[in-house]
Amino acid sequence: MPEQSPPQAPTSARTAASPETSPSPGVSRRALLGTAGATGLVLGAAGGAVGYAAAPSQATPLTSVGANMAMFHGKHQPGITDGLQAKGHLVAFDLAPGAGRREAAALLRRWSTTAERLMAGESASSDDTDVARDAGPSSLTVTFGFGHSFFSRTGLEKQRPVSLDPLPDFSSDHLDKSRSDGDLWVQIGADDALVAFHALRAIQKDAGSAAKVRWQMNGFNRTPGATAHPMTARNLMGQLDGTRNPRPTDADFDKRIFVPASGSGDPSWMAGGSYAVVRRIRMLLDDWEKLSLTAQENVIGRRKSNGAPLSGGSEKTAMDLEKTDAKGDLVVPLNAHARITRPDQNGGAAILRRPFSYHDGIDADGAPDAGLLFVCWQADPLRGFVPLQRKLDRGDALSKYIRHEASGLFAVPGGAAKGEYVGQRLLEG
């Protein structure tokens, strides 16, 4: 779990819906927001795990959460650089027997139409369930990707990127193949659980006879406005999780996270896209919670209270890897998670983490089935996730307390322009 956290989307990409912008009464859920839209823009600047845009000094009122809206159309798909969302669903589909390129194109067209409407705070185009009738957009994002098997199923093998080659095996893997991979992948996130479920149900219904669910996972994060000020999220181990994520303001951000229009070796339909690595990482919480606070901090390499490196300072202070204590021992242990995942210790390899926590109940032995739905983004997984995970595999102190139980790699094309559907350049190119 390389230690990085998601950046906040620019305020231009996340806006407040207001009753005045509703298409018509009875159709748009935004019309039901009342005066919430008047304060919704506050969250657009500060919502999420870390507010990289201008942030207010006080907590965001929860009444404004529903008014916040992400954009469906754009250079990149939504759900990549947006701030962490309170509720998420990850779902993979396999095309039905006999379904091919034509059926896939029709499906992506339906999905894109539904996603655009729901993200705007409107009802689904047909047979809406009314689950989210009383809510606004709530920062809903819907993101679509293609798995390795999708290209053989649709006769598009020549368009399959080399970067989509299967991930190598790692020693920490205990993968359930039935909950891994898939022809198609959909990521849904929102700041309201009913809004997220509504989108999940609509996407599933839109699949019709063209595709069936292969696996589905549910996650959550802290709700925007729950803390006095925007801050890095905590994971289920109680640690601030994601201090060193790349930021959109970094000069090389786009180069690391998004596929360029030319010169990458990727097919042209991937321009503006990114690659998502998805891992279900179980946290062995019973074992973790038996450790002393000092032991936990040595495993991570950071203070549990504020995320500061053990070498001193605050959360954002650069870690001093050479600092020693009075006995001459390194203050940040050699196998500390934060040391191993630093880009300057991995040839500059960096990923954009955008995870959800999960809890799927209690096992028969009383252990919680809980952990992280790890989602990371990069322009090339062979230069992003793979070298970092190989390094972690060789000696991360955290490995003793986690288990990788499912995995997937998906090519996520660039955003759809007005009048287009996601993946159109691939399916109709």
Could you provide a short overview of the structure?
The chain is of the alpha+beta class. Helices cover 19% and strands 18% of the residues.
Choose one word for the global shape. globular
Q: What is the number of domains?
A: 1
Estimated radius of gyration = 21 Å
Structural class of the secondary structure composition? alpha+beta
Give the integer mean of the pLDDT values: 87
Count of helical regions: 10
State the major sheet.
5 strands, antiparallel
- What is the percentage of strand-forming residues? 15-25%
Low-pLDDT sequence parts: 5-14, 17-58
| SSE ordering | EHEEHEHEHEHEHHHEEEHEH
Strand segment count? 11
Straight-line distance between termini:
37 Å
Helix content: 10-25%
Which structural traits does this protein have?
429 residues; alpha+beta; 5-stranded antiparallel beta sheet; 11 strands
Task: Describe this structure as you would to a colleague.
The chain starts with 13 loop residues before the first strand and ends with a helix. Residues 5-14 and 17-58 have low confidence and may be disordered. It has helices spanning 40-46, 101-119, 148-153, 193-207, 253-257, 285-288, 293-300, 337-340, 385-393, 424-427, and strands at residues 14-16, 68-70, 87-95, 141-146, 184-190, 211-220, 274-283, 352-353, 356-362, 368-378, 402-412. It is globular and about 70 Å long. The chain has 10 helices and 11 strands. It has one domain. The longest helix has 19 residues, at 101-119. Helix 2 (101-119) runs antiparallel to helix 4. The relative contact order is 0.19. The chain is α+β, with helices and mostly antiparallel strands and 429 residues long. Strands 7, 8, 9, 10 and 11 form a 5-stranded antiparallel sheet that branches. The protein has a 4-stranded antiparallel sheet with strand order 4-5-3-6. Residues 10-25 have a biased composition (Polar residues). Its EC number is 1.11.1.-. Its cofactor is heme b. Keywords: Heme, Iron, Lyase, Metal-binding, Oxidoreductase, Peroxidase, Signal. Involved in the recovery of exogenous heme iron. Extracts iron from heme while preserving the protoporphyrin ring intact.
